[in-house]
Design brief:
The complex is a heterodimer. By secondary structure, chain A is an alpha+beta fold. Chain A has helices spanning about 10-15, 35-45, 60-70, 105-115, 135-140, 190-205, 210-215; strands spanning about 20-25, 25-30, 45-50, 55-60, 80, 90, 95-100, 120-125, 130-135, 160-165, 165-175, 180-185, 210. Chain B has 23 helices and 47 strands. Chain B is elongated. The chains are: A alpha+beta, B alpha+beta.
Chain lengths: ~220, ~950
């Protein structure tokens, strides 16, 4: 039997826009929403990277369990790190972590295969995962969130858990040579609403939905 | 008359603006306010007063009064003094009957003696006549006409952040911003006016050096990299922790600052004399605004009534604008020596010390054409026989100010009345809030700037930048406000509140009636309750009350200042709608199948699936039929889905649910009831033991978040060796139900689905369509069925696979309404529909689910007590008559017995299986025996007969769970 198809939590709100699709890690994902993707990306782009596989773990034994698998963990709560293999490891609290594979990565599969030890509580994660880009990203957040993202010190690889358009989100700010961009995760059942609302606000700012082709390495 | 260009005027003289006012065409300049454009064109009558429909002109030329309140097409509440005139505007004055000039209500003033303050409280309380009076008053008192076809305007709403927020961009505010920014703070400075600079650019006394001081500050502010200047933006309120909503023409910005400096200045207050509301009588500062902002000569020949240095500057500015100053009427006994007074004397301007304007006179159009002045004694009383007339077309009132302290009050500032200044000033400021300039009691320009610098340094230091200031600003030596700017007149019409047409005698009457407290006076007289919210009237009212009651202003105190500072458009308040909407992973599948969605908390759920040509009820009944006779599937992904893991997981569940879970076998499920501390049934679900130390359990859809939050709290408190994980959004879930469900499922899995291997109420893990699932054999709808839980991202794939596998068996989806009926036939309750905020498990027949012999569980103590007490009500099943026709009772309709309320219906529906209407109802215990008849009162008051019956209505022995097909 073939591997079952994964469906992005954003599929229902993206499909009516008629994007060009691509398949990444068994998930249908918009490759492009049109020729304006690049321009939107530069101002306020909203991309979907829900296809990246994720797993969470919490509990007093969580950090040790990840270490057993060779997964590095950030030293401080509310921060993240990127492993050399591209795996993103987010530390949401003292004992709570989220691991996100790079495309084609297997770290989360190893986590699923691991029998949880004492004080280790696996947290299955099928979030809606967004990338927010562009020079007006801060303005986008200011219209959707009470947290001041401009106050983040990017080299510290900060992570923020806050509410955006009324939805609980986890956000990391990533320092990039092309300028800062943001990764946003939320419960997938709120994903369609969050995505559509952010795209609406971004549209007012000259941005909007962008596909993987425009995102390029920012989707990694 | 338009003046030559002023150095800081707001006009673009290259662009004329054509507009209409009251049906006549006018032309102004870009940058003009509506009022300034009209005034420049010689139009002096700009509105009608609220109560007596008196003609009114410009009073403040600012947003401190509403003499010029206009309707601009669909747009209401257009304030002519501050709204810029636009090409093509078609404006009408509000509150007229037949137009401004011919207003049919213009004679109402003649009946003023019959309309004293509070007359409506006394005259219109007759119950029978009240509706008629109400209609009359609504018709005659509206300020504009609402067009219900006005489009819904969506506005952005944003958050913003800064270290120091400065409210007010006059000289002190600008100085404060510069000082704070120079310390390293990021600063936002806002000003409600279209352009910054405040009074520093118009209260000049024809002294350009004063203007240049402010101009220099403004240029520095504009150039400073750490300062953002927001013009045309007002601070609408102050909320806790330096949270200030900033409102501009397009949107509201929620500004969070580390420190807030209020440099909002002062409102000029009218001098109170007879006919002080005639067009042509205006605040001195209004005349200065007209001159310097709009290059409009306010009047040709003016009388300046004053009691401070500002009035002398007004006179000098009028002379500079080419006006004649007929006289300075100074209400103080002596005129302090000053360069301004000398300059005026040298230009032949008469200064009358110890005088007042006794009354103003109108021409045939009701506009000012002269005044009578008189001498007053030290207490402000008119000296008889001292009257003298002066011809003039303008009176500048400049006798005092009131602090723009609204935000300071809202922030919790303790204010004190300064007897020298005759003004309330901040006494104790809350942490993080600062004040400077005239609102802080400093009026000389150099003092205002110095005070601004001090406040800027202090605020920056509070925000973590630099050190606070040690500067002390010398106090004022001259009062900017007169203690009693009021001139009595036997014929009244000496107005205090221009919004509400309140005269001095209205306050005297109110106090005589016993309303001698400032808050009571406000409510009885309505002073300060008009659209300008007391900006030009509260201080005078307070002075009158103080004098009438023999108190000091400090003793009288002020009324409560509440948000908002100016009215905020509802579209701004609403902003973009953020109403989080939750969709199950299967939402798209439901939509494609024609689902009609219903709102269930944050979720949108399929109520039923529409079939072309069929009614709603037929669609629902077909879905029910499919479940009972074939197979159907419902999305139950909205259920709360939690997992508790660890050696003490069973102990944890023992404590939070009423049942017993430590003795469950792995692979078993058990119904679970949760109560709160008072024994009220708060939630229910199913607990599955997945492994020795892992339990997976469901909650109600609406209770998921609350239950998880509460259980997380309890887990922290109890410190048990287990961890709780919320999987509600991570897992999708469906219930595949019906006689053919096993047959359909068998096509997709290698799991042993036999009754022996997978019995009723068992839980199994495996693969379905290659997707890892947890399955529970439950019977909520009364049929053989499987609740299948899977990772959310595979939900649609599994749904598609099951629907395809079930085609030959006639599979279809079923929605919430069908499920409600199916479970009702089975007699299963729905928490929060068949229970309420007081229901305990014993009332709904769940004694079996409550294990009082456990050592402890939440609500146990209360349930032990309740168990000893007789039931007050009981949930029972009921039937309507076999042949019932006519209206059907609805949920919440009352059961009536012996004329008293004896219960209520909680669920009711037509049951195809029973062939009758069935339902659940709370009844008093004496009525709960099966076969007992009772009556339900329906909406039209008639009674419907019903009869108690045993439940379930369908398959009472669970035979359906024993037979697969």
């Amino acid at each position: 039997m073939n591997a079952p198809i994964r469906i992005s939590p954003l599929f229902d709100v993206q499909a009516p826009l008629g994007p060009k699709w691509s398949h990444v890690d068994a998930m249908q994902t918009p490759a492009s929403f049109g020729s304006a993707d690049g321009a939107k990306l530069a101002l306020a782009g909203i991309g979907d990277v829900s296809f990246r596989r994720r797993a969470g773990v919490k509990g007093p034994g969580a950090a040790a369990a990840l270490a057993e698998l060779g997964i590095a963990t950030p030293e401080r709560p509310n921060s993240f790190l990127r492993m050399a293999c591209g795996t993103l490891v987010a530390r949401m609290g003292r004992t709570e972590f989220m691991v996100e594979d790079a495309a084609g990565g297997t770290r989360t599969a190893q986590m699923h295969a691991q029998t949880p030890g004492a004080g280790v509580y696996p947290v299955p994660r099928f979030d809606a995962a967004l990338v927010v880009t562009g020079e007006r990203a801060i303005e986008l957040f200011r219209q959707s969130c009470a947290f001041d993202f401009s106050s983040l010190v990017l080299p510290e690889q900060p992570l923020v858990m806050t509410s955006m358009v009324g939805v609980g989100v986890t956000v990391v700010a990533i320092d990039d040579p092309s300028g800062p961009y943001y990764r946003v995760w939320c419960d997938g059942t709120y994903g369609g609403y969050l995505w559509a609302t952010l795209v609406e606000v971004a549209s007012d700012l000259g941005g909007g939905a962008v596909g993987l082709e425009a995102l390029g390495r920012l989707a990694q | 008359m338009r003046l030559p260009a002023m150095p800081d005027e707001w006009l673009d003289r290259s662009r004329a603006v054509r507009f209409r006012f009251e049906g006549r065409s006018f032309e102004g300049l870009t940058g003009d306010s509506i009022s300034s454009a009209l005034w420049a064109a010689g139009q002096r009558t700009l509105g009608r007063s609220f109560k007596y429909h008196r003609v009114r002109g410009i009073l403040s030329a600012a947003n401190h009064d509403v003499n010029v309140m206009l309707q601009d097409g669909q747009k209401l509440n257009t304030r002519g003094d501050v709204i810029a005139v636009r090409e093509g505007m078609d404006l009408t004055a509000v509150n007229t009957f037949g137009g401004l000039a011919g207003d049919r209500a213009r004679h109402l003033g003649m009946f003023a003696r019959f309309l004293p303050v509070g007359f409506y409280y006394k005259a219109f309380h007759n119950k029978r006549l009240f509706p008629a009076w109400e209609r009359l008053f609504r018709r005659i008192t509206g300020l504009g006409v609402i067009d219900f076809g006005t489009p819904h305007i969506r506005t952005a709403k944003s958050y913003d952040f800064c270290d120091v927020l400065v409210v007010g961009a006059g000289p002190s505010g600008l100085a404060a911003a510069l000082a704070a920014a120079s310390s390293g703070a990021s600063v936002v400075i806002c000003d409600e006016n279209a352009r910054a600079g405040g009074s520093g650019l118009y209260q000049l006394g024809a002294d350009d050096a004063r203007r240049m001081q402010t101009r220099t500050l403004l240029d520095q502010v504009r150039a400073h990299p750490r300062i953002r200047l927001l013009e045309g933006t007002y601070a609408a309120a102050y909320y806790a922790d330096q949270w200030v909503p900033l409102v501009d023409a397009d949107k509201m910005t929620k500004m969070r600052a580390r420190a807030v400096i209020v440099a909002a200045g002062v409102f000029e207050q009218p001098t109170v004399f007879r006919n002080n509301d005639l067009p042509g009588v205006m605040m001195g500062s209004a005349m200065q605004r007209l001159i310097y902002r709009y290059a409009v000569q306010p009047v040709r020949r003016a009388v300046v009534v004053t009691a401070n240095a500002d009035g002398y500057r007004v006179a000098l500015d009028l002379l500079a604008a080419g006006s004649t100053v007929a006289s300075i009427v100074d209400m103080r006994a002596n005129v302090p020596p000053s360069a301004q007074a000398d300059a005026l004397r040298s230009r032949g301007v008469e200064i009358l010390a110890g005088h007042a304007v006794y009354e103003a006179h109108a021409n045939g159009k009701g506009e000012l054409d002269g005044v009578t002045v008189c001498r007053i004694d030290g207490a402000g009383r008119v000296v008889s026989g001292s009257n003298r007339s002066i011809d003039c077309d303008g009176v500048a009132m400049s006798t005092g100010w009131a602090p723009t302290a609204n935000l300071l009050y809202q922030a919790g500032t303790k204010m004190r009345f300064d007897d020298l200044l005759q003004q309330f000033v901040p006494d104790t400021l809350p942490e993080g809030v600062f004040a400077c300039g005239r609102v802080n009691g400093f009026f000389r320009l150099e003092s205002r700037i110095a005070d601004g610098q001090r406040a800027g340094l202090d605020a920056a230091a509070h925000a973590g930048f630099g050190a606070p200031s040690d500067t002390r600003i010398p106090p004022e030596s001259e009062a900017p406000s007169l203690a009693w700017p009021i001139v009595a007149h036997p014929d009244g019409k000496n107005f205090v509140d221009f919004d509400e047409d309140l005269q001095v005698k209205d306050f005297e009457n109110a106090v005589q009636e016993g309303y001698d407290n400032i808050e009571l006076l406000k409510r009885f007289s309505t002073v300060g309750m008009g659209p300008s919210q007391g900006k030009h009237s509260n201080m005078t009212a307070l002075r009158i009350l103080a004098r009438l009651t023999g108190k000091t202003p400090q003793q009288v105190g002020t009324t409560t200042a509440r948000p908002f500072f100016h009215p905020v458009p509802l579209s701004h308040l609403a902003g973009r709608g953020f109403s989080p909407q939750r969709h199950s992973p299967l939402h798209g599948r439901h939509a494609a199948l024609g689902a009609v969605f219903m709102q269930a908390g944050a979720w949108e759920r399929p109520e039923y699936y529409r079939v072309e040509g069929r009614s709603r009820i037929d669609c629902i009944r077909e879905e029910v039929r499919r479940v009972r006779t074939a197979v159907a599937m419902i999305d139950v992904g909205t259920l709360g889905k939690l997992e508790v893991r660890g050696p003490q997981a069973a102990e944890f569940l023992q404590r939070v649910y009423t049942g017993r879970y430590d003795n469950m076998k792995v692979g078993a499920t058990r119904y679970a009831v949760m109560c709160d501390e008072s024994g009220v049934l708060s939630d229910e679900g199913v607990v599955a033991r997945v492994s020795e130390d892992v339990f997976y359990f469901t909650t109600t859809s609406s209770g998921a978040a609350t239950v998880y939050r509460e259980l997380s709290r309890l887990n922290i408190e109890w410190k048990l060796d287990c961890g709780l994980v919320n999987l509600t959004g991570a897992y999708s879930a469906v219930n595949l139900a019906g006689p053919a469900s096993r047959k359909v499922l068998a096509q997709l899995t290698d799991m042993d689905l036999s009754s022996a291997s997978f019995p009723y109420l068992a839980c199994r893990s495996g693969l379905v369509a290659g997707i890892p699932v947890r399955m529970m054999r439950v019977g909520f709808v009364g049929e053989w069925g499987y609740e299948i839980h899977m990772p959310a991202e595979y939900g649609p794939t599994l749904w598609d696979a099951v629907m395809k596998a079930g085609e030959a068996s006639g599979i279809g989806p079923f929605g919430v309404e069908a499920q409600r009926l199916l479970r009702l036939e089975k007699g299963h309750l729905i928490v929060s529909q068949d229970t309420d905020g007081l229901t305990n498990p014993f009332e709904v027949g769940m004694n079996w689910a409550v294990k009082l012999d456990k050592p402890f569980f939440v609500g146990q103590r209360s349930l032990q007590i309740l168990k000893q007490m007789p039931l007050k009500r009981k949930l029972v099943g009921f039937l309507l008559a076999q042949n019932h026709s006519g209206q059907v009772p609805m949920e919440c309709h009352l059961v009536i017995h012996d004329g008293e309320i004896a219960g209520r219906v909680t669920s009711i529906s037509w049951s195809p299986h029973v062939g009758r209407y069935i339902g659940l109802a709370f009844l008093q215990p004496s009525l709960t025996e099966p076969g007992t008849p009772f009556s339900i009162r329906i909406g039209d008051g008639s009674m419907v007969a019903a009869e108690v019956c045993a439940t379930p209505f369908f398959d009472p022995k669970d035979e359906r769970q024993k037979e697969a097909e």
